[in-house]
Write a sequence for this structure.
């Protein structure tokens, strides 16, 4: 698609270099830990070694004797202000600091306030806590067995560890379809707990100004306005009113969902600042980040897929047990405790489906959907794509051909899935065909036959996913009651330059550039002349923040709508300046011209100047607009990925030889940035597929709680991603754009898992759970008679 | 993330350093590259009251061949070892080992001496030095002594160094003609310790049989392991596929791995077998014995 | 302990505890916050600086060890208003997104290109294997290094 605007204007389709880069390449970004305020104090947190234990005694005397230590804050201190518990984003509750007992290893137990980072650490090292261990519940299945120790003894009427039951779809029709099916495949799939591990950890500086009675919090947050409102609601009783709270989300070193929840450290820092009147900085270290902050996945899934013997899919039935840790602190829209898991019919025209999920409490950190997955969409896609591959192999059908046969057809869009989602647009056949052509699919299958004869293990895996993003329409979507619209406020200055502020918050996605490009597209003002700001709740319009790939679909749309309001007013001013009627004017990016007299025109810059110097009588001066956009629907980016692996039968290592990713995110704002999002997303799909896992032993001790064992891929492990795209615009989005930030993280793991299983199918292997470690592959090979 | 406080000493001579260490005893730790010590101190798994920084002592770094040995100063940085043309061409086992220690940034500070003196069975040089039949030179208050590498590793994080002694040099015998070596390391990702690794150094006689064989195993026991039975099985034999397979089997039996997140005991043992085959094949080829 | 060191060509003196980590000296005493902290086990490389020309992880060095040494941080790459070719390449090739790992990548890259002016892709990937990135998937970081190599050789 050729850009409509010139390179100088830099509207949609241009690979504009990023406006945020000049400060980052010079090391002049401002991340939370870069900020130093006069008189600033430091907070360090004492954490529990036990997964479940009563707190018998906290002895702070040694800590208080450390030079520089000012105070040791405990749950008892916060309880005086009723701040020891707080609500979660799913309306559960979690502890800020415990009074009675701890419920996961690494839980916050006390906080040391000191004049320096080093003194705070010294203090934290000598706080003495006496615990009385309690029985630990780590397995969510066991958590739901009768007689299991009840974890949430704080909930008066709770007699078990069951959080909620949720189901969706037509159970009777699905059961019938499965019972009558020619072929069914059934598989248990465990998707383990993982952690986003953005390179910057979480932290804040809380600064309560006693004179002005105002709290300012510099915070690593993806959703500053929501945080402000939550703080006002939770701490209103101690005098914090919303107009006296300012949240500043500065430069953020990666979010991926991990910087959406409210962590206890933030609340303790705020409390400490309110009490002392001094700025209080809390920055967690990496082990705290991995061991205590919100996780993602941890779904125990049993899936069944049914088909006719000619390969036509007929029904899908899924039962899932969701391990939420000790509190449901997932950041799901409130009506959907399992997020958008029911997009699990995927890209296929499945007529009957039913899905049910049960949430369980265990002695683990609370959560959790924080890992670049929209809301549980990675889990949904992994399930349907594994099952589709399983079915194809079972029927001895080529997996690509099988998918083509079952894809929703282009003429079926907008498509209503069996589970009620209205997919806006799609061209699944086109994306898969392009992926196959790019990678040379037929040739690879021939090579595989050859290699198999020689005992070499080569696999080809496909993932043809449909994503669901852009939460969301107010009819169904809210977080803690806050509707999920988003906003853009734009003001054009007399000299034709502009400022635009948004309710979202970039953590590396390039909003300062892409939003400017949208506005440039709509108004013809060069993108370089538009300053984009986000993240300061004192100035930015209200929004629900950036996660779940929602910025382009929602705030991007708001930008277009705000720009169109401005253009409407600009037309009136132009008509006034040119002394014609509005209908006599035509618009091209950057100017209004009189129809039939192109020499008679006014640029948007002329109009901006006039808005302040020569506006029509009876009209307000100025040239600005705000839009709060309530999307009519979600958007459905999609893609097809094909992965080729070679297995080392001696060591079990999986080598990704090639990976082709064809993505479709509708109309593209900045191709360079979109491609970068795909590269990063693929790498965050590779990581859980082969490397990452946070697990617990029976005593609740975390395994994988540091970068020693929580394995982030380096440039050596990461394949040379090959990317491409198709363009299928969204019919309901003002720009036809869909959002892309998470697609690759959603689609990639299944392509890799399918490739590995494909490599070993002829040996009798049917499934491997991720992460597919060399040890796992080795075990399967040896069990199936393969050795080197 | 923040170490406990300590007293810092930066001696400028070996005599000063060894006297200091002898005086401070258990209360002191030697700081060379710091890439093992400082991470431990940041997690407060080690909180020595005294740290003795030996980086200011002259004459402890350098790589040269002299008197029948490759002599590597203990303060030689791994990256310097990696870039040494001499080592790359004449000691491929050593070159392959240093290349896979941690990551390139850590290698700019990590020292060969530190990698050995730390006594961690997960470190890479120990198995390699066992395979090479090296010896270390220790300097202490009572003078200098040479310790054969086979006696150097006494237990997990324990070496034959006595209080007050500093490792000053590693000496690798210059290999005879028709020698070859290889290091094969299986790691989950760059920067990880070995799931298992095997070091092989061998010399072929004119008749093509193994005259000398050294096989060292990394991270499959409480100390680095010299697979003596595997070595004996190859000595005097032609290193054909059957002999290699047999030696690999014995090397696997010599391993005493523990189960951890990297894998089960069975897996690691079989890995030793597989890696020993690969290391032997490559070493034989380098010795000029390719079939 | 009193230490003296040169940072980006400027001499500094400081009185520090022996245990002060070099990264904290740089960030909190010298107020050069371009060098970042991303982990506690010497893995991520966000803290990479040049010490006497070699890229090292400044979180795993005591400030006292830098006594008498020359350090270069990311703030020292731009000279007289001119970006280092690698910095410019990171921007032109989209080698950064959130920017947090970027200073570390730049310092490693600058030193690497000095030693290896004509690197292969695999050599580049090995050279940056001590620097973790979560945003870019490394593809464009590699491109940026390749682009800068060409510029430095007088090509592109």
């Amino acid at each position: 698609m050729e850009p409509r605007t010139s390179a100088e204007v830099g509207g949609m389709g241009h690979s504009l270099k990023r406006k945020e880069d000049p400060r980052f390449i010079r090391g002049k970004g401002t991340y939370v830990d870069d900020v130093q305020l006069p008189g600033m104090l430091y907070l360090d947190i004492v954490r529990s070694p036990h997964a479940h234990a009563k707190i018998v005694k906290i002895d702070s005397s040694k800590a208080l004797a450390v030079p520089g230590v000012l105070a040791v804050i405990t749950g008892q201190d916060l309880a005086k202000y009723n701040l020891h518990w707080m609500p979660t984003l799913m309306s559960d509750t979690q502890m800020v600091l415990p009074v009675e007992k701890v419920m996961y290893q690494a839980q916050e137990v006390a906080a040391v306030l000191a004049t320096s980072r080093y003194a705070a650490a010294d203090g934290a090292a000598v706080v003495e806590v006496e615990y009385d261990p309690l029985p630990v519940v780590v397995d969510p299945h066991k958590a739901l067995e009768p007689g299991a120790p009840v974890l949430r003894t704080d909930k008066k009427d709770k007699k078990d560890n069951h959080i909620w039951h949720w189901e969706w779809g037509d159970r009777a029709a699905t059961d019938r379809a499965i019972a009558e099916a020619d072929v069914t495949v059934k598989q248990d799939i465990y998707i383990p707990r993982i952690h986003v591990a953005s390179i910057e950890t979480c932290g804040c500086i809380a600064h309560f100004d006693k004179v002005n009675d105002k709290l300012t919090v510099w915070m690593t947050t993806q959703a500053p306005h929501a945080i402000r409102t939550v703080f006002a609601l939770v701490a209103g009783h101690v005098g914090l009113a919303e107009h006296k709270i300012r949240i500043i989300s500065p430069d953020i070193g990666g979010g991926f969902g991990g910087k959406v929840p409210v962590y206890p450290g933030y609340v303790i820092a705020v409390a400490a600042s309110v009490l002392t009147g001094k700025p209080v900085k809390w920055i967690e270290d990496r082990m705290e980040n991995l061991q205590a902050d919100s996780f993602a996945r941890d779904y125990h899934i049993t899936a069944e897929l049914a088909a006719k013997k000619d390969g036509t899919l007929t029904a899908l039935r899924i039962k899932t047990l969701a391990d939420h840790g000790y509190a449901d602190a997932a950041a799901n829209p409130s009506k959907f405790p399992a997020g958008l898991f029911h997009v699990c019919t995927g890209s296929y025209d499945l007529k009957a489906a039913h899905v049910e999920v049960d949430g369980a409490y265990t002695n683990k950190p609370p959560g959790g959907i924080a890992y670049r997955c929209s809301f549980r969409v990675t889990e949904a896609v992994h399930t349907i794509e594994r099952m589709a591959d399983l079915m194809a192999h079972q029927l001895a059908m080529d997996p690509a051909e099988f998918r083509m046969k079952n894809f929703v057809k282009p003429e079926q869009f907008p498509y209503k899935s069996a589970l009620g989602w209205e997919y806006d647009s799609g061209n699944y056949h086109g994306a898969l065909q392009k992926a196959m052509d790019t990678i040379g699919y037929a040739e690879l299958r021939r090579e595989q036959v050859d290699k198999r004869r020689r005992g070499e293990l080569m696999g080809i895996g496909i993932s043809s996913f449909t994503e669901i993003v852009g939460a969301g329409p107010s009819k169904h979507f809210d977080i803690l009651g806050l509707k999920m619209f988003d906003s853009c406020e734009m003001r054009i200055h007399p000299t034709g330059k502009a400022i635009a502020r948004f309710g979202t918050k970039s953590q590396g996605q390039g909003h300062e550039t892409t939003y400017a490009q949208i506005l440039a597209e709509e108004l013809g003002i060069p993108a370089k002349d538009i300053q984009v700001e986000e993240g300061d709740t004192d100035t930015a319009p209200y929004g629900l923040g950036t996660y779940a790939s929602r910025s382009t679909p929602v705030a991007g749309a708001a930008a277009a709508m705000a720009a169109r309001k401005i253009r409407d007013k600009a037309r009136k001013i132009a008509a006034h300046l040119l002394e014609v009627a509005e209908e006599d004017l035509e618009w091209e990016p950057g100017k209004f011209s009189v129809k039939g007299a192109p020499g008679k025109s006014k640029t948007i810059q002329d109009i901006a100047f006039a808005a302040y110097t020569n506006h029509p009588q009876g009209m307000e001066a100025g040239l600005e607009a705000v839009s709060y956009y309530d999307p009519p629907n979600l958007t459905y980016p999609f893609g097809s990925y094909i992965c080729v692996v070679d297995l080392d039968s001696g060591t079990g290592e999986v080598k990704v030889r090639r990976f082709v990713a064809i993505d479709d995110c509708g109309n593209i704002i900045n191709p360079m940035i979109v491609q970068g999002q795909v590269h990063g997303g693929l790498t965050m799909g590779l990581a859980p597929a082969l490397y990452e896992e946070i697990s617990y032993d029976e005593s609740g001790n975390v395994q994988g709680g540091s970068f020693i064992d929580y394995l982030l891929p380096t440039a050596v492990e990461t394949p040379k991603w090959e990317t491409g795209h198709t363009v299928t615009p969204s019919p309901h989005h003002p720009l036809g754009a869909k959002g892309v930030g998470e697609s690759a993280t959603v689609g990639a793991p299944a392509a890799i898992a399918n490739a590995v299983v494909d490599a070993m199918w002829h040996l009798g292997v049917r499934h491997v759970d991720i992460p597919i470690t060399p040890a796992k592959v080795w075990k399967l090979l040896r069990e199936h008679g393969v050795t080197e | 993330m923040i170490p406990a406080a300590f007293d810092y000493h930066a001696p400028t001579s070996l005599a000063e350093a060894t006297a200091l260490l002898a005086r401070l005893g258990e209360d002191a730790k030697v700081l060379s590259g710091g890439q093992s010590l400082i991470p431990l101190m940041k997690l407060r798994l080690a909180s020595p009251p005294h740290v003795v920084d030996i980086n200011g002592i002259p004459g402890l770094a350098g790589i040269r061949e002299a008197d029948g040995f490759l002599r590597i100063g203990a303060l030689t940085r791994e990256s310097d070892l990696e870039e040494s043309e001499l080592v790359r061409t004449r000691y491929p086992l050593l070159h392959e080992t240093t290349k896979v220690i941690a990551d390139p940034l850590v290698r700019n500070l990590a020292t060969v001496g530190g990698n050995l003196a730390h006594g961690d069975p997960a470190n890479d040089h120990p198995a390699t030095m066992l395979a090479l039949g090296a010896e270390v030179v220790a300097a202490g208050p009572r003078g200098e002594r040479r310790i054969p590498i086979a006696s150097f590793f006494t237990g997990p994080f324990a070496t034959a160094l006595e209080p007050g002694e500093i490792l000053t040099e590693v000496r690798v015998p210059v290999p005879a003609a028709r020698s070859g070596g290889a290091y094969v390391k299986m790691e989950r990702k760059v920067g990880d310790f070995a799931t298992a690794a095997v070091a092989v150094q061998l010399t072929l006689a004119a008749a093509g049989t193994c005259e000398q064989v050294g096989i060292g195993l990394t991270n499959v026991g409480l100390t680095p392991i010299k697979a003596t039975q595997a070595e004996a099985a190859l000595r005097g034999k032609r290193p054909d596929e059957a002999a290699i397979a047999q030696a690999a089997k014995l090397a696997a039996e010599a391993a005493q791995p523990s189960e951890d997140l990297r894998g089960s005991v069975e897996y690691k043992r079989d890995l030793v077998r597989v890696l020993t085959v690969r290391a032997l094949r490559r070493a034989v080829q380098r010795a000029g014995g390719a079939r | 302990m009193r230490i003296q060191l040169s940072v980006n060509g400027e001499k500094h003196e400081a009185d520090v505890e022996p245990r002060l980590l070099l990264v904290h000296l740089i960030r909190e005493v010298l107020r050069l916050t371009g060098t970042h902290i991303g982990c506690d086990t010497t893995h991520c490389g966000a803290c990479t600086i040049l010490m006497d020309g070699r890229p090292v992880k400044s979180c795993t060095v005591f400030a006292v060890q830098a006594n008498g040494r020359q350090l270069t941080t990311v703030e020292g790459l731009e000279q007289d208003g001119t970006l280092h070719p690698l910095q410019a390449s990171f921007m032109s090739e989209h080698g950064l997104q959130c920017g947090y790992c970027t200073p570390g990548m730049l310092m490693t890259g600058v030193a690497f290109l000095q030693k290896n002016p004509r690197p292969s892709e695999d050599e580049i990937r090995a050279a940056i294997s001590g620097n973790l990135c979560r945003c870019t998937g490394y593809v464009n970081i590699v491109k940026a290094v390749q682009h800068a190599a060409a510029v430095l050789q007088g090509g592109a």
Summary: The longest helix of chain C spans residues 102-115. Residues 2-76 of chain C form a domain with the Ubiquitin-like (UB roll) fold (CATH 3.10.20.30). Chain C touches chain A through 60 residues (CB under 8 Å). The first strand of chain C starts at residue 2 and ends at 7.
